[in-house]
Design goal:
The chain has 307 residues and is of the alpha/beta class. It contains twelve helices and seven strands.
Length: 307
C-alpha cells in the first residue's frame, strides 16, 4: 500500500473519524487502502468499512478483510450505494453510517505512472482520467474547448493569472497539429510559462485540466450532499483537502450546508446546516510528516459532526 500511496494525516484523520468501534464507516477515496487499513485496525469484528474508488488501479489494493466492501464508483454516488448496501449480518448501511472519510488528493501512483498523464514530469499521453474506462481526456479538453472555455477552467480551477494567454497559445498550437502529449502541451504554453517557479506554474495548469476532466468540483459537491444524508446524528465527516477551491467548498458546506456558504435558517432563526464544525481551523501536517512526504505539504484536515 505504501508503494501505491502514502496516506496523509493518517493518525489525525482516523482518530477524529471513529466514534464507535463497532460502527459502519465509509472511506470515500480508497486509493492505496492506507486509511481503510487503519480504520479496520481500530474496529471490532462487528465493524464495517465501505470503500469507494473510481480508479480501476486502486481495486488491486483490496485486502482480504471480510469487514471491507469495496465499490468501484465515483464518491459522488455515496448516498446511492449506502442506501441499498446491506451486510450479511442484516444491518442496513443506509442512513446510519458512523463516519465518512475523504482524502481528496491525487494518489502518488497516479502521479508517478507516466502513461496516466497526470504529471508534467513525464512526456506521456495527455489523459488525466481517474477512471480510464471512459470519458473525455485532457487531450480532448485542450483540442476541443473554445478559447473562452479554456480560459475559464484555467482561471477558475488553476487560479493562473495569464489564463487568457495560455488559452490562446493552446488554440494556436492545435491549429498546426493536435496536442496529444504532456510534452506537446508544455511546449505549446512555453512562451507564457515563467522560468521562476516553473514547476509550480505547470502544476496549476495540470490541476485545472485534471479537475475539468474528472468533474472534481461537481463530484465533491454531490459527495458532500450525500454524506450529509448518509451519516447518523453524531457521526463524523472527515475531509482532507489540497487546494483552496476544494477546501473552500468543504468549509462552506460544514458551515452552511451548501458549497456556496449561503446560510439558511428556520422561522425561529436557527441554522439549518446539517453539521457542526469540530475544528474551527484546519489541522495541518506536522513538519516531520511533510519532510517524509512532500505531497502532504498542502493538506488541510477538516472535521464535522452531524447534528
Amino acid at each position: 500500500m505504501s508503494e501505491y500511496h502514502t496516506p496523509v494525516l493518517l493518525q489525525e484523520s482516523i482518530q477524529a473519524l471513529i466514534t464507535n468501534p463497532s460502527g459502519i464507516y465509509i472511506d470515500a477515496t480508497f486509493g492505496g487502502g492506507g486509511h481503510t487499513a487503519e480504520i479496520l485496525s481500530r474496529l471490532t469484528h462487528d465493524g464495517k468499512v465501505i470503500a469507494f474508488d473510481r480508479d480501476t488501479d486502486a481495486l488491486a489494493n483490496r485486502n482480504g478483510d471480510p469487514r471491507l466492501q469495496l465499490v468501484h464508483a465515483d464518491f459522488r454516488f455515496v448516498r446511492n450505494f449506502t442506501s441499498y448496501l446491506a451486510w450479511e449480518d442484516g444491518r442496513d448501511a443506509g442512513a446510519q453510517v458512523d463516519g465518512i472519510l475523504a482524502d481528496l488528493g491525487v494518489s502518488s501512483h497516479q502521479f508517478d505512472t507516466a502513461e496516466r498523464g497526470f504529471s508534467f514530469r513525464y512526456d506521456a499521453p495527455l489523459d488525466m482520467r481517474m477512471n480510464t474506462e471512459g470519458g473525455q481526456t485532457a487531450a480532448d479538453v485542450v483540442n476541443r474547448y473554445s478559447a473562452e472555455d479554456l480560459e475559464r477552467i484555467l482561471r477558475l480551477y488553476g487560479e493562473v493569472d495569464n489564463a487568457r494567454q495560455l488559452a490562446r497559445l493552446m488554440i494556436q498550437a492545435r491549429e498546426n497539429a493536435p496536442i496529444t502529449t504532456t510534452g506537446q502541451l508544455d511546449a505549446a504554453i512555453a512562451p507564457a510559462t515563467p522560468k521562476v517557479a516553473e514547476h509550480k506554474f505547470l502544476a496549476k495548469v495540470y490541476q485545472a485540466l485534471r479537475i475539468e476532466v474528472n468533474h472534481e468540483m461537481r463530484s465533491l459537491e454531490k459527495f458532500l450532499e450525500g454524506a450529509a444524508r448518509s451519516l447518523r446524528p453524531g457521526g463524523r465527516l472527515v475531509v482532507i483537502t489540497y487546494h483552496s477551491l476544494e477546501d473552500r467548498m468543504v468549509k462552506n458546506f460544514i458551515r452552511s450546508g451548501n458549497v456556496d456558504g449561503i446560510e439558511n435558517k428556520d422561522i425561529y432563526g436557527r441554522s439549518l446546516a446539517p453539521f457542526a464544525a469540530v475544528n474551527r481551523k484546519p489541522i495541518l501536517p506536522a513538519e516531520s510528516e511533510i519532510a517524509a512526504n512532500t505531497r502532504a505539504r498542502s493538506a488541510k484536515l477538516r472535521i464535522a459532526e452531524k447534528i
